[in-house]
Amino acid sequence: MSDAFIPVNSPLLHGNEAEYLAECIRTGWISSEGPFIKRFEQAMAEAAGRRHGVAVTNGSVALDIAMHALGLEPGDEVIIPTFTIISCAAAVTRAGLVPVGVDCDPATWNMTIEGVEAAITPRTRAIMLVHIYGLPVDLEPIMKLAKARGLKVIEDAAEMHGQTYRGAPCGSFGDVSTFSFYPNKHVTTGEGGMILTDDYALAERLANLRNLCFQPQQRFIHEELGWNARMTNLQAALGVAQVERLPRTVEIKRRIGQLYDEHLADVACIRRPVARTNYADNIYWVYGVVLNNDVLFDAKEAMRRLGEKGIGTRPFFWCMHEQPVLRRMGFMLNESHPNAERIARRGFYLPSGLALTDDEIARSAEALKEILA
Ligand SMILES: Cc1ncc(COP(=O)(O)O)c(C=O)c1O
User: Fold this and answer.
1) Bridge-partner residues for 164, per DSSP?
2) Which of 40, 141, 145, 240 is the most buried (most CB within 10 A)?
3) Ligand 1 site-directed mutation target among 64, 87, 154, 179, most atoms within 8 Å of CB
4) pLDDT at 3
5) What is the mean pLDDT of residues 195-223?
6) Is 185 a known active-site residue?
7) Beta-bridge partner residues of 276
8) What counts of helices (H) and strands (E) characterise the chain?
9) PTM N6-(pyridoxal phosphate)lysine: at which residues (predicted)?
């Protein structure tokens, strides 16, 4: 066994990536005008069961633009999970809307219908569904509630490429869905994101918002402020090659999850990811563990000890309702979400990248056992 440092993420770029990138260089198509953009948008839309895809520069700006495009009124409330990345709350607040947090399930780490029901007020106008770490949100009851109340739904599928909910692709739910293509994602373009919808008019609007809201008839006269969030042809070339291998990528991730499960099966003092629910099998975007209360140290200390043993880790998300920046803005002040607060302090993830070897999985699991012994 080697004892080289094991990074928390390591992408695999061994398909047609180099060939497609070389094609961009050879043809001179490196800007956002190149032909790989459309190909990538179509490939992702097809993989996610959507009609339209709009490629952008990252998953955070995808949420910003999507939230903005829904046409909600300033002060409208949007329900979000508190256990998520800041991008979700940032998109809501930047659109002039008010985030209202929901706790997570202690086992799946995802927002629940009970949480959503408790968070609804007369000002609720939308729900942001965010799938966490490899298992989707239990969508059916939340989608039903949203429909009954006429709420908009935005699905953040940033971590869910290739995942399904009761057989339907993640990224196919709600008015609009988004993906990220950061290098720890199942499809990467280095940096990148996409917004998907089935609504042609909304897709046109999203594409216009992505492109500074230039108008076809009078290019430099603007009726609205947009973003320059255009993806380059180089990134899309990577993306096309990555989507080609998505089913295989999901297989590799599932195998990583299974191997960790086998190595860690007899470790009683941690909670491992749920392997399957009645609506989905885990795709282990990352392999997270949560320390039980009988472990006398927290995630931060566990990660420090693993770092000393050459194992890269990342902390779990920190709750939105505990974010200094949001609290200073007066958001989510009176919220308390014990499940999310607990896993934020006691959860972290092990090396989970696609290039991880069996030997590295064994070493990472062994190191975790040692620090818990
Ligand atoms: C759930 C979720 N939403 C949004 C994002 C933001 O994506 P990006 O890093 O591409 O901005 C991430 C990134 O990991 C994420 O996990």
Assistant:
1) 169
2) 40
3) 87
4) 80
5) 96
6) yes
7) 281
8) 13, 13
9) 185
